[in-house]
Structures are given as C-alpha cells and as structure tokens.
Write a structure and sequence with these properties.
Elements: E1 6-11, H1 15-26, E2 31-35, H2 41-46, H3 48-69, H4 81-106, E3 109-112, E4 115-119, E5 122-125, E6 129-138, E7 142-144, H5 159-162, E8 171-175, H6 179-190, E9 194-199, H7 210-222, E10 226-229, E11 233-238, E12 243-247, E13 252-255, E14 257-260, E15 264-266, H8 273-276, E16 299-301, H9 312-327, E17 341-343, E18 349-353, H10 356-363, E19 366-373, E20 387-394, E21 400-406, H11 410-422, H12 427-432
Parallel strand pairs: 1-2, 1-6, 2-3, 6-16, 8-9, 8-14, 9-10
Antiparallel strand pairs: 4-5, 5-6, 7-15, 11-12, 12-13, 17-18, 18-21, 19-20, 20-21
Helix pairs in contact: 1-4, 1-9, 3-4, 3-6
Bound molecules: NADPH dihydro-nicotinamide-adenine-dinucleotide phosphate.
NADPH dihydro-nicotinamide-adenine-dinucleotide phosphate binds at residues 147, 176-181, 183, 199-201, 206, 232, 261-264, 310-311, 341-344.
Amino acid sequence: MAKYDYDLFVIGAGSGGVRAARLAAMAGAKVLVAEEHRVGGTCVIRGCVPKKFMVYASEYAHHFKMAEGYGWTVGESSFDWPRFIAEKDKEIARLSGIYVRNLQNAGAELVHGRATLLDAHTVEVAGRGRVTADKILVAPGARPWMPVELPGIEHAITSNEAFHLEELPKRIVIAGGGYIALEFAGIFNGLGVETTLVHRGPNVLRGFDDDIRAHIAEEMDKRGIKVILGAQHAAIEKTDTGLVSRFTDGHHCESDVVMFALGRAPYVDGLGLEAAGVELDEDGAVRVDDYSRTNVENIWAVGDVTNRINLTPVAIREGHAFADTEFNNKPTTFDHDMVASAVFSQPPIGSVGLSEAEARHRLGKVDVYLARFRPMKYALTGYSERCLVKLVVEAATEKVVGCHVVGPDAPEIIQLAAVAMKMGVTKTQWDSTCAVHPTLAEELVTLREKYVPQGLGQAA
Ligand code: NDP
C-alpha cells in the first residue's frame, strides 16, 4: 500500500499550479489539486484575461474618434456595460471550463475547497477531510493589498470588484501608480468615465525606464486622465452625492467609485505554512530556491506566492520546471532574466531588460538610442499622441540590455525583442536586421544616432 494518498497535492488551480499538476499527472503521478474559488486563478478569473477584454472594449471610443480622420462618419455610439460584463463572464466561464477539462484529461483530481497544511505531508481540505501527499506544491497566488487603517477604506474597491461593478461609474478615483492602476485608468477613461489617478511618487511605474515613465504620464494626460502625483489618500468619506477622496496634499476629489491598486500580497493566510515549517521572507512570500523548493524538503512553491516576478507566464514556467524536475526526471530551473512584460495602459508599454538608470548602475558606461514620433496610424486623425522607442546598449560589449516601447502594439513588439535579447544580441546584429515597412517596430532597427538628453551635452 502506498505510504501517502497522493504523490502530489497542489494548493491553487491558477496558472502555475495547473501547469505543474497536469504535467505531473501526465507523467503518471497521482495528483490532487485543491481550489477554493474558480479554476483558472487570478489570470483567467480576475486578472489578465478579463482585463484585456476590458481594454479592448474601452479602445473602441478611441477607434471611433480616429475613424473620422479616415473618412468614416460614425453614428451615435453607446456602450452597454451590463451586456459587456455578461459577454466577458461567459468567455471567462468557458476558459475556466477548459482548465478543468485539461486537468481531468491529464488524470489529475480536482477538489473545491480551502486547503490547510497540518504538517509537511498532511492537508485538511474543507469538504473533503484529511489527505496525505508525498510532495506538496503551494501555488495560491496573491491578492490585492489594502491599507486597512485608512479612514473610509471600507468604501474602496480593488481590481477584484472592478470586474463586476453593477454599473459603469460616471467618475472614478484610482489610487496607485503600478500596472493595475494604469491599466484600469486607461479602461475607465476609454469608457467615458471621468478618471483621476493618484500616486504617491514623483512619477508612475517605478522600476521602469524613466523616459517611459515620463512619456506615459504625458500621454495619459493627453487622453484625458487626471494624474495627481506626489499625493495619496488621507481619507475617504461617503456623502449623499458620492465618495470624497481626501489627499495628503490637501486636495480632494469626488467620485462614484474609489479603486485601490497599491500592490498585491502573497496569499498565505490560513494556509498552515507554519504548521508545516515553511519559511516566509521579510515580505511574507514563501522563500524558495532555484528549483522552487522551500526550506521543507517535500514542499515547493511557485507563482505570485513566492514574489519573484509576478507574471502569469513566469508562474507557468516555474510550475513546468518543478514538474519536469520532480516527475519527469529532468532537473530544470527557470531563468528569471530578460523576462519581458507589458503594461496594457493606453497607449500600451512593452519592456524587456534594464532601464537606462539600472544599466548605468550595474554596467557602467551605456549607450542610449531613442526616438519619439507620431505613429503613422494617427497621421490623418489630428491626434498628437506620440510613440517612444528606446534601446539601452552596454558600451563595452555592444549588447542590447534594455528595450522599451510605448505605442500601439508595443506588447506584441516586445515579445520578439525579448527573443533576440535573450540570445545576447549586439547592437550591430540588431541593426543588420532589415526593417519591416511601414511599421512602428521598424523604428527599433533604424536607431543610428546615440541619444544625448537635452541639457546633458556630450559629457553625458
Ligand atoms: P505594482 O507593484 O505594479 O504597483 C503598486 C503601486 O502602489 C505602486 O505605484 C506603489 O508605489 C503603490 N503603493 C504601494 N504601497 C503603497 C502605499 N502604502 N501607499 C501608496 N501607494 C502605494 O502593483 P499592482 O497592484 O499594480 O500589480 C501587482 C502586480 O501584478 C504587478 O507588479 C505585476 O507584477 C502584476 N501585474 C501584471 C500585469 C501585466 O503583466 N500587464 C497587469 C497587472 C498586474 P511606489 O512605486 O511608490 O512603491
């Protein structure tokens, strides 16, 4: 008789957990996956996928306006929020169903219920009871962090609720200057909601290249988003006419919805990690080694709960590497270097590698190539929106170490830039690639002049 009920117990049926469970089951392991909400995790249920549908929905207003420049007369347009939400939810349910089927087809069992570790091999699953497993994978993700001590915080929502608002607000205040804040600011602004974004820092998207940060703030402003920098909420008050956000700089602003997007915290509460002896780091994330193994020999963790790079494809690769290592006899680690990411702001951003500041700090002398221009698509529209493309090159080796794009299709463009950069492309090789014309992307292979920021002269 087997020593344990299962070979592998997976906590969380999100991107990382499902990939690992499927591969392990396909390799012949007896696998049980526990999920307390819906199968698919943040990405499918309340993140990347529904967010992108919302971005698509919101872009139509922009397209309608641009169409006039191309000779179209666009009649009265109106947007039906409940209809859109219903369509979006139908598709999310379909995708969640595919995840369930994929698990079942691979031979993994799924149980709906919250899992709590009792010790390193025993898990209590609500509605199912105790089960034992040889190996355990912790993949419960992260959830929005809220400043619970802020007066009136109970009136604010997070991105979780933004996907299911009963009606489209007329006015919204969004707190934060990261991925989620910028993406939802673009969505609501595009849908005609009076949108204010308030962020504590001197500019949005800390960690991104400074030229990108300045550029996106300017373009968001041009699109009509009110961006307040250097301030944050001091309180939220409910009045007869809405919610009043009081900011630390003394200003206030009334809206119908206040949304907080101040980062996400590893979802470790009540998991029983202490009972199993699993260590957390200073930010409350599960500490793991390169193979995603925790300090407990038979327990691993992947995805946002480990707070490495909190992106869906990274969680998938971490889960995949774990399954290959433990169930396919193929020791594999995932290389977290040169992971590209996109911010689906409007205009969107694609970025891979180092920012200019980071490159100077880490590598010393770097060369910068940069172009700002109006995309061809806007030439007939009267829009003044501009794109930005930027390359950061290590001077000593000529290697392209950073590529940053703001403009239409930037997320699509950056995927392939990442391929070349992962292979260690040099600027000479990059430039030897012939342009595809007429595209925005061709600007990346025609950057010949080194960029010297105005005011810095040749000394820079
Ligand atoms: P981010 O970490 O991107 O941004 C958090 C923002 O909140 C920052 O602007 C930060 O400011 C601010 N903030 C943090 N703490 C406070 C505080 N106490 N008071 C005021 N402001 C504060 O988090 P998000 O919630 O936007 O997204 C979480 C993660 O999910 C992202 O980092 C990303 O990894 C992932 N994600 C990826 C997406 C994509 O790939 N397109 C889309 C959405 C999310 P400061 O900079 O000053 O610290």
